[in-house]
Amino acid sequence: MKFGKFSHSDLDHEHDWWNRPLWGDKTMLEKLFSHPDANAKTNGNNELEIPEKIISIHNQELQRLKELNIFLVKLEDEKFTSQEFIFLIKIKSFELKGIDEYQKISYSSKLLTVGLNTKAFFEILEDIELHYRGKKQQELYNFVSNLLAKNLTKTQYLNKIHKNIADTLYLTKSSKNRKELLLSYKKSLINLADSEIGLKLLKFLLSQNLNNKQFVKSIYLKLNEILPQIKSEEGSLSLKRYAKALESLAHQELALKLLSLFKKYNLADYSLLSYIAELKTDFATQNLTNFAYFFQIVNNNTEKFSKLAQIIEVPDYLNTPTTYARILQYIALTDRYQGTFATFKRLISILQEWQKRYSIVLKIRKECLNKGYTLPPEFKEELPGFKIYQKYKSHLAYLSLKS
Predict the structure, then answer these.
(1) 82: left (phi over 0), alpha (psi -120 to 50) or beta
(2) CA torsion 73→79→80→81, rounded to 10°?
């Protein structure tokens, strides 16, 4: 195994033969310890010797600890113990523990980060929408807005559901029953859509966003429909750039979501992103644990930050300068330690596997001591990786590869 090329299949031996239930809910290891007299032998000094199978399991797990320790040593970084990084881990753990305030801040921070990373494409959209205002250009802009908002009328909702049902029935039902079932479904849907609650339910059922490929395909189909009607080459090129910018946004997670929020709240001015981006350049020289620094920035620009609330979906009860200061701090910390945090997650993942092995070895050693076995030298070896485990074990419960 080479460093950096391992996978869970390299590390995960949870289903080794001796760790699987043999009969009932007992593993082979438990069975071996439950009948010591049948497996144990005595040496020349009349001392009980550990059964060979138990020694084999112990040494196999000890070897795994040694292999895992090689990765742990290479992955450990002095940045993991820096004050700033520890603070970031604390925030991440609060988020994973389900503390609502930090979960909301994390999501809003992700939206804002996406905006900062794709700011150039937002600026292209803004520039084209401001300078090219012809009827056909407006048609494309409105088409994009409606596509993002899923602004479907009652009839469109019914037609879409009807088509989905028809397609399904075509594949699953005989032609004899298909027409009757379709009429029944259609009547039920019309009755459902006639009530306000029913229509909301239908909208909810169809509220899944277009996937990125469908979005891009729809944009280019509309573009190809409009381009022959654009008289100037400059106008055609501008719409092609517009579509290309949308396609680039579609490749970024949450970017279309952010764009839809700008459109939903009629905020065509993306200068907020430029403003935050300018602030971000100053973060590089700051102590990022200094919350007062971020709070002062927000407090001096409350009007600008209040506009962010809808765009990055900050709930009303969190719409305060403190929240925006925390969001800026979170973004700054995440940006500075992006690579470090990725390495740390790998370390934690391996430590989770190490912990399993450690528990097995510890159990074997404890059982052997309790039963009065004579311990061979390998049973007295220091467990490789234990010091690293002690240093980071408090993070194992809340940090994983999913964080």
Answers:
(1) beta
(2) 110
Counting Cβ atoms within 10 Å, is residue 350 exposed (0-12), middle (13-18) or buried (19+)? Answer: buried
Residues 6+ apart with CB under 8 A from 251: 212
Tell me: pLDDT of 49 over 90: no
Domain-located, residue 237: no
Segments forming the whole domain that contains residue 368: 18-118+266-403
The domain tally of the chain equals 2
CB 365 within 8 Å of CB 44: no
User: Distance (Å, rounded) from C-alpha 133 to C-alpha 142?
Assistant: 12
- Conformational region of residue 253, where left means phi above 0, alpha means psi within -120 to 50, and beta covers everything else: beta
Q: Read off the tokens for 59.
A: 């040494």
Contacts of 288 (CB under 8 A, 6+ apart): 84, 87, 329, 332, 333, 336
Mean pLDDT of the region 346-373:
92
Whether residues 85 and 171 share a domain: the answer is no
Helix (H, G, I), strand (E, B) or coil at 27: strand
Whether 77 maps to a domain, the answer reads yes
Q: Does 401 share its domain with 308?
A: yes
Q: Are residues 307 and 392 in the same domain?
A: yes
Contact at 8 Å (CB) between 325 and 276?
no
- Alpha-carbon gap, residue 298 to 324, rounded angstroms: 7
Quick one: pLDDT band at residue 249, thresholds 50, 70, 90?
A: very high
- Domain for residue 243, yes or no? no
pLDDT given for residue 6 in this prediction: 35
The reply to whether 74 falls in a domain is: yes
The span from the CA of 80 to the CA of 290, in Å, is 18
Assess whether 24 and 76 both reside in one domain. Answer: yes
Tokens read off for 80: 């993991």
Dihedral over Cα of 239, 245, 248, 252: its sign: negative
> In angstroms, rounded to a whole number, what is the distance separating the alpha carbons of residues 218 and 190?
28
343 pLDDT more than 80: yes
Query: According to the model, what pLDDT value does residue 208 have?
Result: 47
pTM for this predicted structure: 0.71
Rounded distance, CA 28 to CA 21, Å? 7
